[in-house]
Each structure stands twice: as structure tokens, then as C-alpha cells.
Amino acid sequence: MGLFGEVGRIAKRGARFLTSAGAAVKAFRRRIHAWRRIQFTRAGLVFTLASFAVGFAAFNTGNNLLYLLFGAMLGLIVVSGWLSEQVIRDLAVLRRTPRGVTVGNPLRIHYDVENRRKKIPSFALEIGEANLPARGFLPIIRPGSHASTRSETRFIQRGIMPLDAVTVSTSFPFGLFQKSRDIHLRGELVVWPRSDRRVRPPAPGGDRNPRSGSLSVGSAGPRGEYRGLRSYRPGDDPRDIHWRTTARLGRPVVREYEQNETEALWLCLDTRGEPGDRAEIAIEMVASLAAGAFREGRRFALVTPNLTVEPGLGPGQLERILSVLARVDFTPEAPRPIPPTSPNQCVLVTTRPETSRGFGDLYSPPLAGGP
């Protein structure tokens, strides 16, 4: 019994050793693959096949001239591999990304590249993300100097794009091979939903009838206690212009009013539902209402089942809300959004209009095939 037990323990230790060794080999192979990759270009593939053909002919005929040609072709391949390796070594890359970009707009990623070698320049570099097709190009980086380039990508769907590594590649010097190297730099791209969808003006408080005129994004902010005069800013309501002071100073001047917390536009997003086109339209509605409130200088806030963005003003507030909307997921099991103020003073955007009882105003995407 003792002998069998000892054999069993040895077998278990052997199995654990083989498992850990296999995992180490796989990790090493992944590391090597991530560190350097090489692939043929079309010209390189043709040249390599031609080299083997010349070598085969040389071995079969014993022709010295063919041997010389075969050696020269192999030497060219070796030199190409060595030079391309030198080009992508000792490079430091700094990635600069925007805080966010709207769906459909160009997203530009900037790369600052430093050549840390003292004697050898880098030629014909392509810089881009390992999981994105767009690339920036640098013709040359001299030893000890910096250069900058950028890539441009468009996204057709909102969300968060994780970034793991920057890929540096080159086909220098002869275009026979494309050699690549990954430089691990973690980050993310935030793709905001569209905020230009045409929606009727919100009317929290129970009045759901849109104002006369064409559809617009947002509504005029409520007037509070008069504060004073200030210079006009883009997005101010033209009705607030103080014409006498404007004529006297020769520049537009508007009246400014106090606004209290109860005058904020509370936007509530109900994420209880299946993901899909209607869910994306609901998110775009919220983004459009927030953008309209921003343009009018009105305080606005957002409530989702998992997060509340307190009322605020300005572009920073709009970016915060758009970044939250970029991360929103619709699931049937999501909880109901609970605003920290009276629901009848809030606007609810939902794909389930039957659940809107108690809210001051309601937005719901049309059903498939609807208007």
C-alpha cells in the first residue's frame, strides 16, 4: 500500500511539472510572438522562391555561377533581416489619445517616437495599434531625435475600445519582409454616442406637448433671478440679449440669471431591455437632450440604474455624461433608474414606455418599422 501511494505521489508531481512546463512554453512562445513578428511581402515571397529555385539548379548542375548567384541572394535575405531588426530596436513610443470621439467622426491617435540609438537611424516606420488597421508613417528618425505621426480611424458604434500595445513595423530596406514589434502600452478609446438626433423639447412637470415650430434639440432654459450682464457666449439664448448695452458697447451682451438646483434637467435612462437598435436610439436621445441643454447654458444631470451624474454646466459636464453613455449596457435584468429628486420633474428615456408612470416627460424610440 505504501509503495502504491509513493508511486501515486510521484505521478502527481510529474503531472504538475509537465503542466507548469507546458504553460511556461506557451507563455514564452506568446512573448516571442508579441515581441517580434516577420511576414513575407509579395515581392519577398517571389524573391525567396526564386532563391530556392536557383539553389536547386546550382546543386543539380554544379554551375559555379549559379552557386555565386544563390549565395548572393541568400546574403541579401540575411542582410534584409538584420537591417530591419536594427530599424525597430531601441525605440520609445508615447501614445496620445483624445478624451473621446463621437460615432462617425475621425479619431486621431498621435504617436511621439524617440530613436534612442546613437548612430543608426530608423527608416520607413509604420506606427499603429495592434487591434486597429490604421497606421501612421515616419520616413526617417535620426539617431537621438524625435518624430511624430498619427493614425486616423472612424468608429460606427459607441463603446470602449481597449488598447493593449502599439505595433511598430517596417519593410526596410528591400521590401522583402514586414518585420513588426509590439510595445505594450495600455489605454482605452472612448467612443461617444451621437448627440445630434432631432428630438422634441423636453417638458418635465407633466406638459408633454412640444412647442410650436420644427423639432429641435433641447429647450430654452428656465429664467431665474436676474444676476447681471455678461458677454455673449456661443449657445446663449438670443432672447437674453440686452440690446441697448449691445449697441453702446458694439459687442453682444446678454442678461444672466440665477438657476437653482430644481431647475436642472434630470435625464433618466432606463436600461431594462434587450440590446439592439432601439437601445442605441434611446442612448442617442439622452445624448442629444444633454447636448441641447449644454448649448443653452442649462444645468443638466444623468441618472442610470448604476450611476448618477450630478447637475452641472459646460463642456466638461457634457463629456462626463457622454462617457457614461458610452459604457451603458442594456439588459432585461437591469434595475429601474431612481432619480434623487421628484420623478415628475425628470425626463425618462426608455424602450419600455409602459414603465414611465410618475415621470414628468417620456421619450421612447419607435418600434421596428415605425416612423
What would your notes on this structure say?
The protein is of the alpha/beta class and 371 residues long. The protein has three domains: 36-192, Sandwich (Immunoglobulin-like); 194-208 and 215-222 and 261-371, no CATH class; 223-258, no CATH class. It has six helices and 16 strands. The strands form four sheets. Strands 1, 3, 5, 6, 8 and 9 form a six-stranded mixed sheet that branches. Strands 14-13-12-15-16 form a five-stranded mixed sheet, covered by helices on one side. The chain has a three-stranded antiparallel sheet with strand order 2-4-7, with no helix packed on it. Helix 2 (42-61) runs antiparallel to helix 3 (64-88). The radius of gyration is 32 Å and the shape is elongated.
Features:
single chain, alpha/beta, six-stranded mixed beta sheet, five-stranded mixed beta sheet, 3 domains, 371 residues, Immunoglobulin-like
TL;DR of this structure?
With about 375 residues, the chain is an alpha/beta fold.
List the helices and strands and how they pair.
Elements: H1 2-35, E1 37-40, H2 42-61, H3 64-88, E2 91-96, E3 101-102, E4 106-115, E5 122-129, E6 135-141, E7 146-154, E8 159-170, E9 177-192, E10 226-231, H4 243-249, E11 253-257, E12 265-269, H5 277-295, E13 300-303, E14 308-312, H6 314-327, E15 346-349, E16 361-363
User: CATH topology of the largest domain, what is it called?
Assistant: Immunoglobulin-like
Q: Flag low-confidence runs.
A: 206-222
Query: What is the first-to-last residue Cα distance?
Result: 80 Å
Write down the CATH class of the largest domain: Mainly Beta
**Rg, Cα atoms, Å:** 32 Å
Strand content: 25-35%
User: How many helices?
Assistant: 6
Which CATH architecture of the largest domain would you pick?
Answer: Sandwich
What structural class is derived from the secondary structure elements?
alpha/beta
Helical content (DSSP H or I, runs of 4+): 25-40%
How many E-type strands?
16
Biggest sheet features: 6 strands, mixed
Residue-averaged pLDDT? 83
Looking at CATH, the homologous superfamily of the largest domain is: Immunoglobulins
